[in-house]
Structures are given as structure tokens and as C-alpha cells.
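Fold it.
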Amino acid sequence: MKDIVIILIVIGIAFALYRESQLDTSQWPPSPTQGIFFLAQAIAVAEGSPADWNNPGDLTKTFGFNASAGPQNADGVLKFDTIQDGVGALYAQLSLILNGGSMYSTNTSLSDFGASYAGDPNWAGNVASAYSNISGTPVSTDSSLGDLLQ
């Protein structure tokens, strides 16, 4: 049984690294901060939304950006008109956190954020791993959103 668990963990890590290598940010708009750019990419890796939804954060709110096709699944995840709209909305959400305009604070740990944001116990670990790989800075699920977003 222990061997199966180890194999599943290795497969999960390999899949996350593959998704990370497939993330194309060449069409993404400029980010307000480098930390927002890194965290947005890490969230996109963890979420794995279909590319044609233009929604790297699996967002259910538009944050003022265009999502004329509306929700695409039972969770209400939106399909944005363009990748610039979807990334802009994700940047807007992360900027609200950084600037104190969100229900999440800069003191919120990545683990607590993930429990609320994604509801998946593995999400924070996946984001931390992707963030570490993308930024070259080791982070953990205990890292605060403020540390990650600056």
C-alpha cells in the first residue's frame, strides 16, 4: 500500500510539472507586481482550466472583465472573452488581497487561502510547488499571501 501511495505522489508531481511547462504566458498582460505574476501562474498550474475558457484562476467573478459566455460548469467557473480578460480578472483579485480590499488578508497562509479558494486539500501544496519552481524562491503552504504577492 505504501508503494502505491508513493507512486501516486510521484505521478501527481510529474503531472503538475508537465502542466507548469505547458503554461503559455506570452499573451498575458503586464502584472502589477512580480509576486502577483508568479502567484497567478502558480494558481493557473494548480487549477488547470481548459485553455479555451481563458480563465487561469477558475474564477466565478468577473472583477469588471468580459466573460460574455458566462458560467461553464456547476461551480460557476466563467469563460472569459480573451486570455487578457481572464488574467486581468485574476490579477484584480490578487491585487485586492494585496491592497486590503478582499476577504483574504496578506496574513492569510497559502494553506488557509487554498482551503477556501479551491476546497482541495492538495491545492496549496501544488501552488507552493509551482510558485517555487516559477520564481526560484522556495515557499511553503505556510507562506503568507503578503509574502507571495509582493
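Residues 2-22 form the longest helix (21 residues).
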